[in-house]
Design goal:
Strand order of the largest sheet: 5-4-3-6-7-8-9
Structural class: alpha/beta
Strand content: 15-25%
Number of domains: 1
Distance between the termini: 48 Å
CATH architecture: 3-Layer(aba) Sandwich
CATH topology: Rossmann fold
CATH superfamily: Vaccinia Virus protein VP39
CATH class: Alpha Beta
Oligomer: single chain
Number of strands: 9
Largest sheet: 7 strands, mixed
Shape: globular
Radius of gyration: 18 Å
Order of helices and strands: HHHEEHEHEHEEHEEEH
């Protein structure tokens, strides 16, 4: 289709979503309905999603086929606020209210690939946000996902959204992600989608032997580095993967420990 036709159909999709979702003072994404009927608007979203994956995710070097298929399948437009619906399949972050964002699709795919997940593993996500990253992890179909969100409104809406979309292998908890979720640890993988200025010690302690943490680390309001930590014989091996930009990790945990000296980033 030509660019003008594509843009026109996207505008129609955005208008219809606004009419059904209503308006609110926050940018929180609307919770999807349970209808499974296909529509021309859904076809537009599917085409845009497949193009995004082909050009900006697979085309940028992501090779894990399970991750690529999850990115092709999860409807990102269900996780963005109605005002940003026309940007759902552009490769950049989108505000979701409360000072939070839904991450850039490439970054979501890259961090998921870096976890090197295997069937039967448990994954802890810090920073549920809209629930999109959790949905990508759950869509893999062979891991159990535990996700923590500090903002009560986002935790509630994300949990509902994931349930409505059928992601039953995700548990969502409202709380301070700095301390992890020890009741369900140890975890085979931990992914952090907001940036502290160091690796939280509770997360390192809840990582299983051979497990991996993928986390942005750096000062708030500035660029950070994406780090991968691998637990090997009780010790963490650290790998700096380059610059990224995330919203800061918030909560009493990071505030109480940000000034403490650490031998790690």
């Amino acid at each position: 289709m030509n660019d003008m036709s594509f843009a026109r159909r996207f505008c129609i999709a955005a208008l219809l979503t606004l009419l059904f979702a209503g308006c609110g003072s926050r940018a929180t994404p609307a919770v999807p309905t349970t209808s499974t009927a296909s529509s021309p608007e859904e076809d537009v979203f599917t085409d845009a999603r497949l193009e995004l994956v082909e050009k900006y995710i697979e085309g940028a070097g992501i090779t894990n086929e399970d991750v690529l298929q999850a990115m092709r399948t999860v409807p990102r437009h269900e996780f963005v606020p109605p005002d940003y619906l026309d940007q759902a399949y552009e490769d950049h972050p989108i505000p979701i209210g409360y000072g939070q964002t839904i991450s850039q699709p490439y970054i979501v795919a890259w961090m998921t690939e870096l976890l090197e997940l295997q069937p039967g593993e448990k994954v802890l996500e810090i920073g549920t946000g809209s629930g999109y990253q959790a949905a990508i992890l759950a869509e893999l179909g062979y891991v159990d996902v535990y996700s923590i969100e500090i903002v009560p409104e986002l935790a509630e809406s994300a949990a509902t959204r994931l349930q409505v979309l059928g992601y039953t292998n995700v548990r969502v908890k409202q709380g301070d992600g700095y301390y992890g979720w020890p009741e369900y640890g140890p975890f085979d993988a931990i992914i952090v989608t907001a940036a502290p200025d160091h690796l939280p010690a509770p997360l390192a302690e809840q990582l299983a032997e051979g497990g991996q943490v993928v986390i942005p680390i750096g000062p708030p309001g500035w660029y950070q580095s994406l780090w991968k930590f691998v637990k090997d014989e009780g010790e963490l091996k650290a790998y700096n993967l380059g610059g990224v930009a995330f919203v800061p990790l918030t909560g009493s945990g990071v505030e109480q420990h940000e000034a403490e000296p650490s031998s790690m980033p």
